[in-house]
Amino acid sequence: MNFEISDEDKHSTYVILPAYNEATRIQPVIEEIAKKGYKMIIVNDGSLDNTLEVVRESQRKYPKNIYIFSHIINRGVGVAMQTGFDAVLRYNPKFIVNMDSDGQHSADDLENVLEPLITGRAQAVIGVRPLKDMPLSRNIANAIMNLLTKIFYKVDVSDSQTGFRALTIETLRKININARGYLISSEFIREVNDNDIPFVEVPIQTIYTPETQAKGTNIKEAFKILLQMIRHQF
């Protein structure tokens, strides 16, 4: 990829990372992002381990790059993202990126998801994981959710459940996110579509470990999301 992000655009970008019990995984993720010059909002979603202490340790190393917001109790990834979105509005960046904090995503892909926003090709970006490498149960669940997203929200996407997405500040001000859990991924796509916001999909890397495979949208979660989608229709 020939595109190279400028320092000005890096300083105008905030990365939001929701975190729940990620003490053993989050530090290399956020420190790699900080080394690249991006600012972050870490939402500690009521972690029961020492996630908060680990993040504070990184914050002491990179005080100008890391901002921490915490929930007293675990409220779900959707609410954590809402907290992150509300918080980022205080800083008024040009661009916002959402990543997982468990090491599943590579900081090297930040330029890939930001390029369409910076060049004006889109106002929202969905990072598409290599589905052929995805564990079978997750692949099936993702296929189900892609279909449900198409049926309920009339949007056809390759990876509706990705946790790696980007948007402009103008887009953030237009959309309305209410989901508490993993429904947020499909809800984000619905909001982008309903508000006629131009979006593109870009390929991203995914780093699968036993821990990351155990998280995310599995078939059980897909069924829960289906019920939530049905309720939202009425």
Q: How would you describe this structure to a colleague?
A:
By secondary structure, the chain is an alpha/beta fold. It is about 45% helix and about 15% strand. The protein has a seven-stranded mixed beta sheet with strand order 3-2-1-4-6-5-7, sandwiched between helices. The protein is globular.
Question: Keyphrases for this structure?
Answer:
single chain; 234 residues; alpha/beta; 7-stranded mixed β-sheet
Set down the secondary structure blueprint:
Elements: H1 7-11, E1 13-19, H2 26-35, E2 39-45, H3 51-61, E3 66-71, H4 77-88, E4 95-98, H5 110-118, E5 124-128, H6 136-153, E6 165-168, H7 169-174, H8 183-194, E7 199-203, H9 210-213, H10 219-232
Parallel strand pairs: 1-2, 1-4, 2-3, 5-7
Antiparallel strand pairs: 4-6, 5-6
Helix pairs in contact: 2-3, 6-8, 6-10
Radius of gyration: 17 Å
| First and last CA, distance | 45 Å
Portion in helices? 40-55%
Give average pLDDT, whole number.
Answer: 88
User: Strand share of the residues?
Assistant: 15-25%
What is the number of strand segments? 7
Largest sheet strand order: 3-2-1-4-6-5-7
Order of helices and strands: HEHEHEHEHEHEHHEHH
Poorly predicted regions are none
User: What form results from the Cα inertia axes?
Assistant: globular
Structural class: alpha/beta
Number of helices: 10
* Main sheet properties: 7 strands, mixed
